[in-house]
């Protein structure tokens, strides 16, 4: 089932994955056109936007590293410290939610 993804800035549909920037506006994530994110980030609302593009290479890399660290910490830490591993899962969870909510509905 295809879901329509609408840009938070201009309210027009985002049609392909290459034009999508999923941005973290704490604590939620919002879809933007690549161009709209650049405009919005320079304008007044840029104060409230983080520079973190969740579907970009940097964040994806961080998600993989965090996931590996989390598993390692969970296996190697003492029983009463295993909950710390959960904090490291926040980054991969954001990446996964971005994929499930927006990216998988768009063509590459
Ligand atoms: Zn837009």
| Unreliable segments of 5+ consecutive residues | none
Q: Measured on Cα atoms, how large is the radius of gyration? A: 16 Å
Number of domains: 1
Query: How confident overall, as mean pLDDT?
Result: 90
Strand order of the largest sheet: 1-2
Amino-to-carboxy terminus distance: 16 Å
Please indicate the percent range of residues in DSSP E strands (runs of 2 or more): 5-15%
| H/I helix tally | 4
Describe the structure.
The chain has helices at residues 34-42, 57-76, 84-87, 90-101, and strands at residues 5-6, 13-14, 20-25, 28-33. The model has no long low-confidence stretch (mean pLDDT 90). A two-stranded antiparallel sheet has the order 1-2. Strands 3-4 form a two-stranded antiparallel sheet. A hairpin with a 6-residue loop joins strand 1 and strand 2. The chain has four helices and four strands, in the order E-E-E-E-H-H-H-H. The chain has one domain (5-105). The chain has 108 residues and is of the alpha+beta class. Helix 2 packs across helix 4. Helix content is 42%, strand content 15%. The relative contact order is 0.19. The site of zinc ion has 7 residues, from strand 4.
Question: Gist?
Answer:
The chain has 108 residues and is α+β, with helices and mostly antiparallel strands. It has one domain.
């Amino acid at each position: 089932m295809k879901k329509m993804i609408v840009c938070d800035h201009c309210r027009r549909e985002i049609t392909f994955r290459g034009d999508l920037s999923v941005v973290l506006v704490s604590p939620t994530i919002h879809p933007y056109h690549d161009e709209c994110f650049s405009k919005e980030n320079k304008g007044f609302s840029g104060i409230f936007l983080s520079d973190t593009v969740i579907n970009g290479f940097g964040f994806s890399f961080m998600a993989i590293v965090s996931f590996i660290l989390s598993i390692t910490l969970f296996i190697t830490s003492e029983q009463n410290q295993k909950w710390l591993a959960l904090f490291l899962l926040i980054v991969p969870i954001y990446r996964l939610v971005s994929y499930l909510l927006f990216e998988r509905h768009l063509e590459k």
